[in-house]
Design a protein that fits this description.
Length: about 675
């Protein structure tokens, strides 16, 4: 009996010892984990179910740690002082060699309907058992906003550097754990694209996100492939200062057939952000329908030969690629008389084209109306300087949204680039005139051209079928309605371009103050600059794109003017905006009074007087939609000068073609 009892007790002791040893072998380690500076829209904290692979300086194989509801990671005890971790642990080829964490950057990122974020988003961490793990992102997030109708098969992303070399977008990747920035380095043999697959049928706005390597991309190309095999491309230029691991880049891509531009508002100018098939209604701003026989391009930008970028940033157009391609900007133009729509395909090349609706009268084309197609490579939202505040606007608690460039500009890289200049407009007229192909570096400071539309004019391609190249007429004055049929003729007679120009031609009218000088000095009995912004409206002849219009005098002056008349600085205007002037062209980088990170560029494209270019790169005068209240200057448009200073400067004859900057409606 004693022997049995002793044996049993010994067995219990042995069993207890085994259980204690087994528990020791399965002891749980708890580590705190935070995500430092999480990328907007991506993972900001670990949640229950997340699994992380944890390595150490003494364990290169590592173990799996699972997240708990309280944000703690829990897993089998791991030996070592320094810890390194990677999320998600499901990433292919995940390994650690004591110096580098390696993994496979996925080229095929599946999309699940209803999910905005990618299913995998790599995070890497370093730390120790006492302090826990601090995770950082090692890739950028590219958010693609798909707009339109159709079935999407895939979205491909390609990147290139400033030399045009393809940048790796997927493949084997390594992270140097000693580098505090945890920079993502790709092997040279990595694939040069990342694709998104998932047969998505969309009839509404849809967004998805892709992870892409951080880097200094000169260009990102987004190609949307439909289930039918058609594709639409969006090219994003000059991604500066680069896509970092805490960057989200939004890209809008339109897809499907014939995106109706008029759904965003009727306009005489339509902004095109990407290649694709488009349509617009042949209606005026007030919804009046227009009819014709057919549609065709009237004139178009072509592929230009540019000077090389100099140290001072000057770029000019020296010629064109021959033969000139009439389909460089738009092609496949058609008019549907039943739906009263013009359809066309945009190639995606940046530039301007004018499309004409016309009637065919015995083989001769008579223009009914024209529309300006402005291909920018960017969406309206990408070109908007939102919540602009000057000192005057801030004092009133007001702000305005402006386009960041002149109508028709190719770019805003700097004010010494002819691509900044844009198009020129006679006051109250909807039809644009082409500007200069040179900057002020080779231009006289007064009249540049010996003849109208002469040697310094942008070399566009005119459609010979209309027999209407840019020309000058100083004898005949038509009515405003009649000039709509002759949009490339620069009229001038008695300081007018038409016989019946109305003071509200651009949606405003005569200024409500007695005199612009007393307005600027804040002494006018009716209205002063300190009274704040007075808004206008959009007219049938407004040349601005959807959602924008020509600004009133108050909107333009209160937003940007720094000096008053006669170059005398008024104390109330001091510090209105911060400006950086170009010594090359007098153009300005204008910085918001309230936010030094918000800026726009105001170039000096000069103007056209009697059809010839003047003062390019020397100074410019921008139009407002407001006319001068002085009876002696009846109908003259009020304006704003950009030269050695920025000042309100009274009014000028409506017959001079000047640049425009548009404000949001």
């Amino acid at each position: 009996m004693k022997k049995y009892i002793i044996f049993t007790m010994l067995g219990l002791l042995l069993l207890a010892a085994c259980t204690e040893e087994e528990l020791n072998n399965n002891e749980k380690e708890k580590l705190s984990a935070v995500i430092s500076n999480p990328i907007e829209g991506a993972k900001s904290a670990f949640v229950s179910g997340d699994e992380v692979k944890v390595f150490s300086d003494k364990d290169s194989k590592g173990g799996i740690f699972s997240a708990k509801d309280d944000g703690i990671l829990e897993g089998a005890s791991i030996e070592g002082d320094e810890l390194y971790a990677f999320y998600p642990n499901t990433m292919q080829s995940l390994s650690f060699d004591g110096n580098y964490i390696s993994f496979q950057m996925p080229s095929d990122q599946k999309y699940t309907d209803g999910e905005t974020l990618p299913s995998v988003y790599p995070l890497v961490a370093s730390g120790n058992k006492d302090d826990g793990l601090t995770f950082k992102a090692v890739a950028a997030l590219l958010k693609i906003n798909l707009r339109g109708e159709g079935s999407i098969a895939s979205v491909k992303i390609e990147g290139s550097d400033s030399n045009g070399n393809a940048m790796p977008m997927s493949g084997n990747a390594t992270i140097d754990i000693d580098d505090s920035s945890l920079f993502l380095a790709m092997e040279p043999t990595a694939n040069t694209y990342t694709s998104f697959n998932g047969a998505l049928t969309a009839g509404l706005n849809t967004s998805c996100s892709l992870i892409v390597p951080a880097g200094n991309y000169a260009r990102l190309t987004v190609t949307v492939l439909s289930a039918e095999g058609a594709n639409v491309q969006k090219i994003f230029e000059n991604v500066a200062p680069g896509l970092t691991s805490v960057t989200t880049l939004d890209v809008d891509v339109h897809y499907g057939s014939n995106i109706n531009l008029s759904t965003a508002g009727l306009s005489n100018c339509y902004i095109i952000a990407a290649a694709g098939n488009y349509a617009f209604d042949t209606k005026l701003q007030d919804n009046t329908p227009l009819s014709g026989t057919a549609a065709d391009y009237l004139w178009t930008d072509v592929e230009y030969i540019w000077t090389s970028e100099a140290e001072n940033g000057v770029k000019e157009i020296t010629g064109t690629v021959e033969p000139k391609n009439p389909e460089y900007i738009v092609k496949d133009l058609a008019y549907n008389a039943e739906s009263k729509q013009i359809t066309f395909t945009a190639t995606g090349n940046v530039g301007n084209a004018v499309i004409a609706l016309y009637n065919d009268n015995g083989g001769k084309r008579k223009i009914v109306w024209t529309w300006h197609i402005w291909v920018t490579g960017q969406t309206v939202s990408e070109m908007t300087v939102a919540n602009w505040r000057s000192k005057m606007l801030s004092n009133k608690g007001q702000s305005l949204n402006w386009l960041d460039r002149n109508i028709g500009a190719f770019n805003i890289t700097n004010v010494n680039n002819v691509g900044n200049y844009g198009l020129l407009y006679q006051w109250g007229r909807k039809d644009p005139f082409i500007g200069s192909r040179v900057t002020g570096s080779t231009a006289n400071t007064t009249r540049m051209e010996n003849t109208p539309f002469g040697e310094y004019t942008m070399p566009v391609l005119n459609n010979e079928a209309f027999d209407a190249p840019f020309s000058y007429n100083n004898t005949d004055l038509l009515t405003v309605a009649q000039t709509a049929g002759t949009p490339t003729t620069f009229y001038l007679n008695a300081d007018k371009w038409a016989s019946d120009i109305q003071k509200d031609a651009w949606g405003d009218g005569e200024a409500p103050f007695n005199d612009w000088q007393t307005y600027a000095k804040n002494t006018d009995p009716k209205e002063n600059f300190s009274d704040g912004v007075r808004k206008g409206s959009k007219s049938n002849y407004d040349p601005c794109p959807q959602g924008y219009r020509v600004p009133t005098a108050e909107e333009l002056w209160l937003s940007f003017a720094t000096f008053g008349i006669d170059n005398k600085e008024y104390p109330d205007w001091n510090g209105n905006v911060t400006t950086v002037k170009s010594d090359q062209t007098q153009g300005r980088k204008i910085i918001s009074f309230a936010d030094p990170n918000t800026f726009t560029r105001i170039p000096t494209p000069g103007w056209r007087q009697e059809g010839a270019l003047n003062s390019v790169g020397y100074f410019s005068i921008y139009w407002t939609s407001t006319t001068d209240p002085n009876p002696e200057k009846d109908g003259w448009g009020l304006r704003w000068v950009v030269a050695s200073n920025l000042r309100i400067d009274g009014s000028g004859t409506v017959a001079i073609a000047r640049p425009l900057r548009c404000v949001a409606e």
